[in-house]
């Protein structure tokens, strides 16, 4: 499909933001840019057609089952968009509450921040939250910075962060970027092994980052033991909340001893994000870390007025210019209000039910490396099929041909030929059954017609794309 | 119960297939001592009830006031086409394009976004958006540290103070030295910045227009940085970039921007958009998602995420950054915004905003005791000094529905009487007139 730049015709005008076209008299010649910018000159209809057609080249939750493991692609209800689009929120300038006395002009927005923080605290059993981090990984970085601040304040000399081999790649990346050395710990039977942990645990460990259920979809049964071990060396325990959709109402991370947790509210609390973002990654902490939270923090006065408080001398400072992705967590707030406590628990229960159902149905045709009760997602392996020349990637492409977005593949790294499936609670049983039937059919084709798999997809706008060529030629813009 | 489709019969069938008696059995591994001590979440509400609750909260915000607030975040007009197109479920409910064949729409849009922002900033490469202008500046700084293996960062105090505070927070635990060169009465101190450069300098960070609205040519400064092999990083305001000499023309190695003014509502601070662009030489240090053009097995053009070997899901602790989810939808909004306005529309918005600001500056400085703080060239934002503390003036006018601007004293000692005033094409001449009269009255 032609790019919008290729459709440009010199002199054709799009929409006018306003009348008038002032002179350039205010800028001296030597500060003016040279020549045209090269932005498209197209009509509004050209733009509407172009982007409508582009959108039709996409798979999305609204159009396709999207069982992308660890990404929690559940259905996002539409009413939250109405809430986030209210002009009373979208027109608010972010520095407004920083003008003395002008906090009075944005009480509604401050109340949203205050209330969502309170709800997140109750769902996870933490003492306080910052809403500032703008994505899950941004929350991780914030969490590790909190870890560093805690130890610096106590005079502890800590240089290492432990990350299990089943962790998301963002965990070690975040800890490294915050200045820590990464120590990996091997899983046993798919979960953290206290004996292996013992070997790497010493006084230099600042903390450990855990995901529970982990990326294999397994519950970390040894959690209480892990918490006890870390406490002994004054190491903090960090909870990667990417998989919180499995445990709402079933476990609160604060109650079991975690000190820091981040949410991916765009996953668990159903805020859609096109093409991978924006998200929102609030971070919750236990009592002993509250003083280090980023500034500002929203507070409520005795008269019921909300205000921003900047007076936290031990704070790690600013991780964001303002209050995080307000528009995103506003949707999460609307979603929690809609579901209530029972609805959240029910969401988790049905996410887990659907995952176990599919695991059971697929286990006759695929290797299931950890074939026991899973949480909201599970991992199957195409290792047996790979011996016959059909790999996880081929199954992914075969599923695309059948109209599904593919599951996550080759992750977690500890399972060869991994296919990681997360159905979520919002897909009906017909969809789950049809997907299982179709995937089983693909498995049966490994012997009957393997080429149909290795040459897939054939029903999409393009066939397999040459990624090596893309990296080598580095064509990153549309050169005229 | 909302959004869960399973009937009781279906749940029974599914449990039977799994081979357990109840849903509770699926949570048996969570032992009693790990169960919640409390889960006191209010009962769910109907859709209608939720919306009326949020409408009531939205109504508590005074968004009918006339505002001259800017400070890097501007209320520009957003064409209706932006919402209509970016809210399409096919864009809106898709995820990171891990399966390129099923995501050509998102991928081509990102490729076009990269093209648009590199052209706007006169640079060679762009990523597909980081969180905001502040984190973009931090990421740019880390690119320079990795590239040069040096630790001294020369920072202009003309940079948005919020971003300077952020930089400080992010580098607390790192072996990095921030050396700040003070502003000179609101002007970027080019000579001071030049003097601070030496062969231990990783990067020089400058904003143009600077926080006070003042515009400079940074060509010589960047040449001086190049001479000591330091990286030149420039933070810009993208709308004005339609008129101004570009970072590329001035010789910047990395140019970043807050993309909010390209189609994102102010929305109380987010979601916004971090624009990051650089030279080809720096591209392997560039964090986040990048899209490249390639071909499929039949030779057709297609798009994929590329240069992924730098990323966290492959390199783990050795990755260039931890960025995973990004601001793609915001990048899409920026692209559609730029396309809908087109080359001329965007220039029109920039020129009209600038004209309004100059009219406003004239009206305000006609008031006795009000002086220009911003000297020389400025765009749609400028600073004045008042005969009184700026907070006082703001209080008086805010009561009457006019927010006169940002009080510089919040971040700059000695500038307690400084007021930063912004206009856009949405600011009418009538509003400017009322504002000036109100201020005149308040200063009597």
Structure description:
The complex is a heterodimer of chains A (480) and B (444). Helices cover 36% and strands 11% of the residues of chain A. Chain A is built from 15 helices and 14 strands. Chain A has helices at residues 44-55, 79-84, 87-90, 107-124, 136-154, 170-177, 194-200, 223-232, 265-268, 326-362, 383-386, 392-401, 429-448, 450-454, 467-473, and strands spanning 128-130, 160-164, 181-185, 187-188, 191-192, 205-210, 236-241, 260-263, 283-285, 297-300, 306-309, 378-381, 408-409, 418-421. The longest helix of chain A has 37 residues, at 326-362. By secondary structure, chain B is of the alpha/beta class. Chain B has helices at residues 8-18, 47-59, 80-86, 89-92, 104-121, 133-148, 161-171, 190-196, 219-227, 247-250, 312-315, 328-365, 390-398, 429-443; strands at 66-67, 125-126, 152-156, 177-181, 201-208, 231-236, 254-258, 274-278, 291-295, 301-305, 371-372, 381-385, 402-403, 406-407, 418-422. The termini of chain B are far apart. Classes of the chains: A alpha/beta (480), B alpha/beta (444). Chains A and B meet through helix 1, helix 2, helix 3, helix 4 and helix 5 of A and helix 1, helix 2, helix 3, helix 4 and helix 5 of B.
Beta-strand fraction estimate of chain B: 5-15%
What is the makeup of the main sheet of chain A? 7 strands, mixed
- Helical segment tally of chain A? 15
Which stretches of chain B are poorly predicted, pLDDT < 50 over at least 5 residues? Answer: none
The end-to-end distance of chain A, rounded to whole angstroms, is 16 Å
**Strand numbers in spatial order across the main sheet of chain A:** 1-9-8-7-6-2-3
Question: How do the SSEs of chain A run, as a string of H and E?
Answer: HHHHEHEHEEEHEHEEHEEEHEHHEEHHH
Order of helical and strand elements of chain B: HHEHHHEHEHEHEHEHEEEEHHEEHEEEH
The pLDDT mean of chain A sits at 95
Q: What global shape of chain A is seen?
A: globular
Radius of gyration of chain A over all CA atoms, rounded? 25 Å
Terminal residue distance of chain B: 62 Å
The DSSP helix count of chain B reads: 14
